[in-house]
Structure formats: C-alpha cells, structure tokens
Design goal:
Largest sheet: none
Shape: elongated
Number of domains: 1
Helix content: over 70%
C-alpha cells in the first residue's frame, strides 16, 4: 500500500508539473499579445513580426513536447499503479488523449500567429491635444 501511495503522489506531482508548463505557455502568449497590443510602431515591422513568430513557434513546439512527455509519464504511472483502491483517485489525473492536447495547443498556436500577423495592433493614433502639450 505504501508503494501505491508513493505512485499516487508521483502521479499528482506530474499533474502539477503539467500545470506549470500550461501556465508558462499562457504567460508567453499573454506577454506576446500584450507587446503587440501596446501599439508601438516597431510592432508593425515585418522583420519584428517574423522574429516574434519564429521565436514563438520554437517555444510553442518545445512546450508541446514537454506537455506530451509529462502526459506520457502520467499514463505510465497509472499503468504501474494497476488495480488498487487508489486507482479511483488516480483516475482523476488521467490525461486526455494525445491528439486532443496536440490539437488544442496547435489551435491556440495558430490563433496567436494570426493575431501577430493580421490584427492591426499598430494603428496610428491621433496626437493628444491640450493635456500636457503646453496649451
């Protein structure tokens, strides 16, 4: 029973690791979109969009690889746990099918790339009048 409890703790520890990588991905996406939404003129340059896109694709694919590896670790740990009373609790940590995770992640990746390239973040704003302009 002690070994089963250790396996159960390890299964949930891997679930925590998975949450960390999803949170890291979310922080990256929000930071990237926040940079684009700042409307700074440099964000309109094709070279900047290309650099951000290539960097994002690299990090996103790496993140997806880590998420997939952690899910596989969880699957294998659940197999090791086998049929025991703890299995009912451990089933809550069962990861979704690989294709679902991959499709969700890649769908978000494509959405971010569309936002980088096609959302007009950098519209020219009219100059402020009056306040702080010495008038």
């Amino acid at each position: 029973m002690d070994d089963q409890l250790k396996l159960l703790a390890l299964i949930f520890a891997r679930a925590d690791a998975l949450n960390f990588y999803w949170n890291l991905y979310l922080a990256l996406v929000l930071g990237l979109l926040g940079l684009m939404a700042s409307g700074k003129p440099f964000t309109a340059r094709v070279s900047i969009k290309l650099l951000l896109s290539v960097g994002f694709i690299g990090v996103a694919l790496s993140n997806l690889g880590v998420i997939d590896a952690i899910d596989e670790q969880r699957r294998q740990l659940l197999i090791l746990l086998g049929d025991c009373p703890a299995q009912a609790v451990a089933s809550a940590a069962m990861p979704p099918e690989r294709w679902r995770v991959g499709a969700f992640h890649l769908g978000l990746d494509v959405l971010v790339l569309i936002c980088i390239w096609f959302v007009p973040w950098h519209r020219v704003r009219p100059a402020a009048r009056g306040f702080g302009k010495g008038e």
